[in-house]
Design brief:
By secondary structure, this protein is α/β, with parallel strands linked by helices. The protein folds into 3 domains: 70 residues, Orthogonal Bundle (Arc Repressor Mutant, subunit A); 107 residues, D-Maltodextrin-Binding Protein, domain 2, CATH 3.40.190.10; 99 residues, 3-Layer(aba) Sandwich (D-Maltodextrin-Binding Protein, domain 2). Helix content is 44%, strand content 23%. It has 11 helices and 14 strands. It is globular and about 70 Å long. Pfam families: HTH_1, LysR_substrate. It comes from Pseudoduganella ginsengisoli. GO terms for molecular function: DNA binding; DNA-binding transcription factor activity. InterPro entries: LysR_HTH_N, LysR_subst-bd, WH-like_DNA-bd_sf, WH_DNA-bd_sf.
C-alpha cells in the first residue's frame, strides 16, 4: 500500500467521481482506476460503488476513508515537524470543539491565532464529544476540547475551566425565579429539550440528577444546537446547557438563563492531546494559545458561567 493510493482514494471520495478526481490530481483516469483496483485487491474488499452518476463509498470504504485521512494528516504533520522553526511555528493545526463550546472559544481562538501566529493555518472542526475523542485517537485532529467524564486516560489533558450549566428558556416562558434561580427538581419537571447521550453535556446532567435522587423524563432529544435553539424559541420547551451557545439570544432578551441549584450542575472543560502522536511545534503553540484564550475569556467574564482552572503547561 502506497501513500499515493491513499491520496487517490480520498480524492475520489471527496469529489464523488473518478474523472473529477483524475482532473484534480492531474492523473490519467485509467491510471487512477488501476491504482484503486490494486488497493481494493490488497485490502480484499470493495471500497466504492461505481455508477453512471459517480461513485459512493461502501461500508468498507467509509471505514478505510477515515483511516486514510488520519494517515495522510500524520504524514503531513511529520513533514511539518521536521521543517518548522520553534521560534516561528507554521503549518496546519486542526482543533476539535464540541458544539456547546465553540460559541465561546471559536472566534476568540481564530482571532488570537491570526494575530500571534500568522503562519499557522488553524482548522476548527465542530463535533459531538464522542466523535472528537475518536478523531483525536486516530490523529484526525491535533487537539480537542473535551469534558472530564473520568474516561480521558488515553489523552494528555489540561484543565481549562469549570463551566456552569443553566436552565435556558424563552424569556416569556421562564418559571418564577426563587431569588437563586431554579432548583434542579423544578427544572427537571418541565418539558426539556436535551442533546442525546453521545453529547458530552447529557451524561453530566443525568449523573447529577441520579445523585440527587431525581431523573429526567419526557425529554425531546435534539443534537443540533441550531435546531435546539429554534425549538426553544418556538416554545417547545427549555434546556439545560452552558450559556455560551445561546449568549446572543440571552443578551437580546429573547431567552433567559436561570442558575440551577439544589444541586447545581457544572462540568470540567479540558484541552486534550494524544499520548501517542507528538505535537508539532505549531500544534504545541496553538495548545498554549488555547489555554491563554480560555483564561482571558474567564477573567473578562465573556465566557459566561465559566471559572478559570489551573491549566499548567498544556498538552
Amino acid at each position: 500500500m502506497e501513500l499515493r493510493q491513499l491520496r487517490y482514494f480520498v480524492a475520489i471520495v471527496d469529489h464523488g467521481s473518478l474523472s473529477r478526481a483524475a482532473a484534480m490530481l492531474h492523473v490519467a483516469q485509467p491510471a487512477l482506476t488501476q491504482q484503486l483496483r490494486q488497493l481494493e485487491e490488497e485490502l480484499g474488499a470493495q471500497l466504492l460503488h461505481r455508477s453512471a452518476q459517480g461513485v459512493l463509498s461502501t461500508d468498507a470504504g467509509k471505514v478505510f476513508y477515515e483511516h486514510a485521512l488520519a494517515i495522510l494528516k500524520q504524514v503531513a504533520d511529520a513533514r511539518s515537524a521536521v521543517t518548522q522553526s520553534a521560534t516561528r511555528p507554521s503549518g496546519s493545526v486542526t482543533v476539535g470543539l464540541p458544539h456547546s463550546i465553540s460559541g465561546a472559544l471559536a472566534l476568540p481562538l481564530l482571532t488570537a491565532t491570526r494575530e500571534q501566529f500568522p503562519e499557522i493555518t488553524l482548522q476548527l472542526t465542530e463535533e459531538l464529544t464522542g466523535n472528537l475523542a475518536e478523531q483525536l485517537k486516530s490523529g484526525r485532529v491535533n487537539l480537542a476540547v473535551l469534558f472530564d467524564d473520568g474516561q480521558l486516560s488515553p489523552f494528555v489533558c489540561t484543565p481549562l475551566a469549570e463551566e456552569e450549566l443553566r436552565y435556558l428558556c424563552r424569556a416569556d416562558m421562564a418559571p418564577p425565579d426563587d431569588g437563586n434561580g431554579i432548583t434542579l427538581s423544578d427544572a427537571l419537571s418541565t418539558q426539556l429539550i436535551l442533546p442525546g447521550m453521545q453529547h458530552g453535556v447529557r451524561p453530566r446532567i443525568e449523573a447529577v440528577a441520579r445523585g440527587a435522587g431525581l431523573a429526567t423524563s419526557n425529554v425531546i432529544e435534539i443534537n443540533s444546537i441550531a435546531i435546539l435553539k429554534s425549538a426553544i424559541l418556538a416554545g417547545m420547551g427549555a434546556t439545560i446547557l452552558p450559556v455560551a451557545p445561546v449568549l446572543a439570544e440571552v443578551e437580546h432578551g429573547a431567552m433567559r438563563a436561570l442558575p440551577i441549584h439544589s444541586p447545581s450542575i457544572s462540568r470540567t472543560v479540558v484541552l486534550c492531546g494524544s499520548k501517542n502522536i507528538p505535537l508539532t511545534n505549531a500544534a504545541a503553540a496553538v495548545s498554549r494559545l488555547i489555554c491563554q484564550v480560555a483564561a482571558d475569556l474567564c477573567r473578562s467574564g465573556y465566557w459566561l458561567g465559566a471559572r478559570l482552572l489551573d491549566s499548567g503547561a498544556g498538552p
